[in-house]
Amino acid sequence: RKITSTNGECGDEVTYSIESTTLTITGRGKMYNYGALDAPWYQERSIKTINIGSGVTSIGDYCFWGLSISNVLIPNTITIIGSHSFGYCGSLKNIIIPQSVETLGSSVFEMSNLENIEIPDTVKNYGEKILLMCLYLKNAKLSKSFTVINSGTFSQCKRLINVSFPENLVEIQTMAFWECNALQYLKLSKILVSRLFKVVMNS
């Protein structure tokens, strides 16, 4: 079904409009959080591109969950990308996270088809399973601000071959790399190995 035009509110001061296959978000402040299947554009299955305007400061929970999007423009005013917001986006192969982002919610990219990801150093807070079952993910560069790789972060990323670790890392939690069958080894600095060893010995 080809979309002609539709619009509405998706935040106290944020609105959306759909023209053809493009969803445009404009305004100021935070987008609303949604539950699975609840975003007002969820049924519009032909959306391929999302343009978020400067001034919007957050992407709400489940906002774009399950959409067949292939292109996303995120402005440098976004500080929060909410939980599950790009989950199950099976056509999403690449995404640029701007350096304004400070928080990534749990399962934010779960089951998307991302092939590479770079999480900027500005990201200090993130939830569990952010890249769960990204089956085509091959390369990941993590924020230097990360001190912990949370539970399930790369779980079942079966094609993952390379991860760039932050030097401040002190903990890798349970199942962070579960069933990462293509990942044959982890390259860690001597400082990082020493820190991890001390954590294990003192636990």
The main pleated sheet reads as: 5 strands, mixed
Radius of gyration: 18 Å
- Beta-strand content bin: 25-35%
Contiguous low-pLDDT stretches (5 residues minimum) are 1-5
The gist of it:
The chain is mainly beta. Helix content is 6%, strand content 25%.
Task: Give the topology, please.
Elements: E1 5-11, E2 14-19, E3 22-27, E4 29-30, E5 49-52, E6 56-59, E7 71-73, E8 80-81, E9 103-104, E10 116-118, E11 125-126, E12 139-141, E13 148-149, E14 162-164, E15 171-172, H1 190-202
Parallel strand pairs: 3-5, 4-6, 5-7, 6-8, 8-9, 9-11, 10-12, 12-14, 13-15
Antiparallel strand pairs: 1-2, 2-3
Task: Describe this protein's structure.
- By secondary structure, the chain is mostly beta strands.
- About 5% of the residues lie in helices and about 25% in strands.
- It has 1 helix and 15 strands, in the order E-E-E-E-E-E-E-E-E-E-E-E-E-E-E-H.
- Strands 1-2-3-5-7 form a 5-stranded mixed sheet, with no helix packed on it.
- It is elongated.
- The termini are far apart.
